[in-house]
């Protein structure tokens, strides 16, 4: 197991097929990473007191922090971090114990807190704050701190959600090719 992947209490990260983890990223504990997904420089992901699940073809960009909340008397399941397929998480985002659907773009520096649910086909603007327990409906651009629904996504923006994931799959493949030389 690479130094950037660490076991905690007997649980180690599990990687899907054809994934890329930058050497400077740290992934600890119960984390699963889907096929064709990528973790970029200086990402910190701690699945120590709950689990993190990242879907297929998703990318977590530079400096992002992924974490979870432990089970408590008031919340027996705690808050795992669930990230769907074809998700792009921008640089320096912080995702904490939330659920993110498929084809979502999380803008740079956005913060999404415990219990928030981000449905499919959403763009979250850079620097936005999603408060605990907030639910975001599919098909919209959300911006602000705290976040507010700004408008419906255009057809071009909806298409871009998959294009962004495709771009990072190709970039990941380029990095993997460099490593194998």
Describe the structure in your own words:
The chain has one helix spanning 155-180; strands spanning 5-6, 14-15, 20-21, 26-33, 38-39, 44-54, 59-60, 65-67, 81-83, 88-89, 94-96, 99-100, 104-106, 111-112, 117-118, 122-124, 129-130, 135-136, 140-144, 147-152. The protein has 181 residues and is mainly beta. The protein has one domain (5-180): 3 Solenoid (UDP N-Acetylglucosamine Acyltransferase, domain 1). The strands form two sheets. Strands 1, 2, 4, 6, 8, 9, 11, 12, 14, 15, 17 and 18 form a twelve-stranded parallel sheet that branches. A hairpin with a 2-residue loop joins strand 19 and strand 20 (147-152). The longest helix is centred in the C-terminal third of the chain and has 26 residues, at 155-180. It is globular and about 45 Å long. The model has no long low-confidence stretch (mean pLDDT 97).
Question: Which SSEs are present, and which pair or pack?
Answer:
Elements (H helix, E strand, L loop, with lengths): L4 E2 L7 E2 L4 E2 L4 E8 L4 E2 L4 E11 L4 E2 L4 E3 L13 E3 L4 E2 L4 E3 L2 E2 L3 E3 L4 E2 L4 E2 L3 E3 L4 E2 L4 E2 L3 E5 L2 E6 L2 H26 L1
Parallel strand pairs: 1-4, 2-4, 3-5, 4-6, 5-7, 6-8, 6-9, 7-10, 8-11, 9-12, 10-13, 11-14, 12-15, 13-16, 14-17, 15-18, 16-19
Antiparallel strand pairs: 19-20
